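lol forgot to send this yesterday, sorry. struct tokens for the thing we talked abt
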């Protein structure tokens, strides 16, 4: 069997395995929801106070911009699990015994990631078709203008996303939560470079096309040039806005579509080639599922894993550990069965902090002191933003630790697990917020700033509640790491009203909203855990 055929079968098997998982339904659901937000006018492209008529050309470009702006971020977190899944299921150990090269494996996994993301792009293109028919501004379908831009720009950008997901999984320091956070800033930088090419009144150069990762500048500057021919008074200014933050649309113009040229098409091929190069780079760091070759793994950790696997093998073979015993455990005395809530909270906090180095505590203490000693405006507007991003990877464990370490049978079989363990886990997360940002709470209390104190309390409650609810319902830390990092950047870091859950300024605070959201999320976490207990 030649290599191309092996590659095809490997990619096909991996893709089919993914589409049978609930996470794939979640992926498709997000793409459908994203298409709905465009239809509902929550995601729009505007040029000043102009918008294009909803014809095939405009909607094709709109869906292309939405795909590169949102799917390149969210899609990364959806597909960044393929190598880890092979580790957990031990399929990787089987693959390691074959002649398959490391570069072949990383390239196959990248193509598999790309196939999943391509389905999302196709959904966006289909959503554009439905939107054109439902809006009714121009029902004449031009399939190439409608489907061409999402496929050309969306797929080229997502090729790099698919490769970066594999690269991050092959680098030990980036395959976990830290990599999820770092990718957000990588995505921000790449998108910022593309947006920087939107320069009113200037023609696109060949270099602009090739450095425009997402194609945002390539599309918007052609739109601006076409509008300027229709309305010479147009002064420039183009934006892709989400959440209804754009200004009012009072004028419409006819957009006839992109003027394709060789530089534009070759630039898309270049970014696909860059994605392939990144996939091959991942092979350099890939350990081929060999614990002895894993980077930065201590001898003690390898021996511990080997011992655990040996013990599991003995158990599976029917060792003494599997033999039934006629003995019975004595019932737990009623006096010892009473709730020791504070002890449970302490235990949960120790679990959260387990494995932290001294420098982590030193940084947390520094942030606490900075919140306490900095000028109040600086402490509330800036220091707290850093203080409450520092424990992100610790909060992300909440609610999903039982699934990650396979301790559900132990935890869920304990007495009053729902009434005792879940509130204790939540309170441990709140204590973590106080450990890093409590200095600001003390400052606001001493200053009798009740409005600021209420906003601080809302933030300290909302963050761990969000982490707990997402962890309980998804059994994964990735949703919180992805959502919280983006929310933190768009909201508190920029003092955006409605998104500022930390209340960094009086104008951007939404105390009642986030206290209410905390209560709703806590109920959601309770219901999710109760459902897990019912099927445990």
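and heres what i got for the seq, position by position
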């Amino acid at each position: 069997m030649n290599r191309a055929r092996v590659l095809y079968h490997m990619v096909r098997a991996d893709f089919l395995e993914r589409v049978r998982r609930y996470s794939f339904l979640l992926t498709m659901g997000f793409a459908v929801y994203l298409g709905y937000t465009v239809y509902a006018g929550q995601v729009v492209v505007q040029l000043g106070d102009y918008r294009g008529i909803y014809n095939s050309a405009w909607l094709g470009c709109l869906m292309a911009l939405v795909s590169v702006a949102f799917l390149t971020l969210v899609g990364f977190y959806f597909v960044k699990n393929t190598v880890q899944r092979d580790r957990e299921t031990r399929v990787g150990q089987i693959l390691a015994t074959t002649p398959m090269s490391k570069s072949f494996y990383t390239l196959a996994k990248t193509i598999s990631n790309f196939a999943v993301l391509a389905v999302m792009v196709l959904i966006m293109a289909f959503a554009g078709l439905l939107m054109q028919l439902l809006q009714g501004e121009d029902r004449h379908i031009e399939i190439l203008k409608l489907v061409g831009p999402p496929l050309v720009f969306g797929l080229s950008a997502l090729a790099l996303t698919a490769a970066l997901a594999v690269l991050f999984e092959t680098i030990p320091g980036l395959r976990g939560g830290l990599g999820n956070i770092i990718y957000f800033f990588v995505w921000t930088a790449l998108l910022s470079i593309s947006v920087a090419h939107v320069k009113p009144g200037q023609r696109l150069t060949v270099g602009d096309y090739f450095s425009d990762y997402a194609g945002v500048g390539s599309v918007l500057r052609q739109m601006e040039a076409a509008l300027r021919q229709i309305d010479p008074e147009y002064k420039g200014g183009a934006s892709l806005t989400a959440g209804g933050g754009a200004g009012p649309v009072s004028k419409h113009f006819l957009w006839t579509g992109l003027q394709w040229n060789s530089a534009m098409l070759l630039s898309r091929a270049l970014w696909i080639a860059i994605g392939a190069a990144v996939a091959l780079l991942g092979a350099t760091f890939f350990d081929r599922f060999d614990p002895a070759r894993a980077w930065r793994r201590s001898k003690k950790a390898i021996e511990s894993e080997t011992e655990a696997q040996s013990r599991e093998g003995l158990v599976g073979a029917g060792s003494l550990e599997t033999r039934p015993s006629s003995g019975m455990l004595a019932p737990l005395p009623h006096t010892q069965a009473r709730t020791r809530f504070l002890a449970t909270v302490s235990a949960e906090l120790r679990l959260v902090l387990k494995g932290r180095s001294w420098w982590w505590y030193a940084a947390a203490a520094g942030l606490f002191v900075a919140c306490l000693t900095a000028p109040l405006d600086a402490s509330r507007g800036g220091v707290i933003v850093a203080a409450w991003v520092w424990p992100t990877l610790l909060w992300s464990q909440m609610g999903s630790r039982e699934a990650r370490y396979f301790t559900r049978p132990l935890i869920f079989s304990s007495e009053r697990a729902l009434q005792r363990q879940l509130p204790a886990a939540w309170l441990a997360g709140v204590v973590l917020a106080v450990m890093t940002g409590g200095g600001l709470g003390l400052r606001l209390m001493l200053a009798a700033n009740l409005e600021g104190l209420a906003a601080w309390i809302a933030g300290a409650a909302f963050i761990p509640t969000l982490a707990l609810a997402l962890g309980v319902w998804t059994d994964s830390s990735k949703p919180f790491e992805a959502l919280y990092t983006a929310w933190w950047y768009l909201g508190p870091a920029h003092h955006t009203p409605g998104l500022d859950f930390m209340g960094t300024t009086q104008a951007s605070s939404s105390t009642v909203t986030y206290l209410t959201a905390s209560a709703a999320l806590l109920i959601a976490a309770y219901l999710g855990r109760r459902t897990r207990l019912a099927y445990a």
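Strands lie at 43-47, 50-52, 238-242, 251-253. anyway ping me if u want another try
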